[in-house]
Amino acid sequence: MTASRDRLVANLWQGKDPFIGFPTERYPTDFQGWRSNHPYLAETIEIARPSIVVEIGVWKGGSTITMAEKAKALDIDCAIISVDTFLGAWDHWLSEQFRGDLKAFHGYPTLFYTFMANVVAKELNDIVVPMPLDSNNAAEVLRRQGIRPDVVHVDAGHDRKAVLADLELWWDLLAPGGYLIGDDYDPSFYSWPEVAHAFHEFFQTTQLENYDGKCRVRKMVAR
Q1: Within the chain, what is the greatest distance between any pair of CA atoms?
Q2: Residue 108 carries which DSSP code?
Q3: CA dist., res. 103 & res. 114, Å (int)
Q4: How far apart are CA 43 and CA 26, in angstroms?
Q5: What is the pLDDT of residues 204-216, one digit of tens each?
Q6: So what's the pLDDT on residue 222?
Q7: Which residues does the chain have with pLDDT short of 70?
Q8: Contact 180/219 with Cβ under 8 angstroms?
Q9: Neighbours of 14 (CB within 10 A)
């Protein structure tokens, strides 16, 4: 366990590591995801060498795993907080395919356990800290704990209101000099038009660094 993760487990989980004793034999791994190996993820870890990373919108943990593997390979004292309700978003509930991925048990999704099984299988539970909360409540917990991430990956809702809400919360909490990565960013407005529109509205520009469905913005240090 890294020192950064040790402190987070103490503050967020009262020292009770949620991975200890997790029954991996009950839950099969499933590494399906979207752009989970995007170059911005590992590249930003290498550039920023962060102590704290927060991912908002985790699904099965693919992006979390990519960032954690890079941090581990670089031997960085880093912890990655994975924020998600693990209940799915509106688009998952409206899709027959992805509704099935929620693996509901008596009407309640069990996606969280798929995520946990995946992290354990990759032996990254010494870097990852699960935080099964919605974005707003997770940000408030971190704010009250004085925890400011160095890297934030926003990959939650796909409608304008949800994206703007996440940007307002997490850009404010992001440490000066840190990086925010946005997923499902398509400046041609083809796939998820409201995501790109929300980024442009929030940052008041359409000139964002972007590549293959993600964008990246650095929060400059005030002089």
Answers
A1: 55
A2: B
A3: 9
A4: 34
A5: 999 999 999 999 9
A6: 67
A7: 222-223
A8: yes
A9: 7
Name 181's Cβ contacts closer than 8 Å, sequence gap at least 6: 40, 41, 44, 151, 152, 153, 154, 214, 215, 216
Which residues does 96 contact at the CB level (< 8 Å), separation at least 6?
none
Strand, coil or helix: 179:
strand
Tell me, what's the pLDDT at 223? 60
Give helix then strand counts, H and E, for the chain: 9, 7
Helix (H, G, I), strand (E, B) or coil at 105: strand
Both tokens of residue 202? 């929030």
Task: Say if CB 195 and CB 185 are below 8 A apart.
Answer: yes
Alpha-carbon gap, residue 53 to 152, rounded angstroms: 6
Instruction: Map tokens 């909360």 to a residue.
Output: 133
- Count of residues for the chain? 223
DSSP E strands in the chain: the ranges are 52-56, 79-83, 128-131, 151-154, 179-183, 209-211, 214-218
What CA–CA distances, in Å, run from 150 to 20, 49, 50, 78, 94?
27, 8, 5, 10, 34
State the pLDDT at residue 188. 85
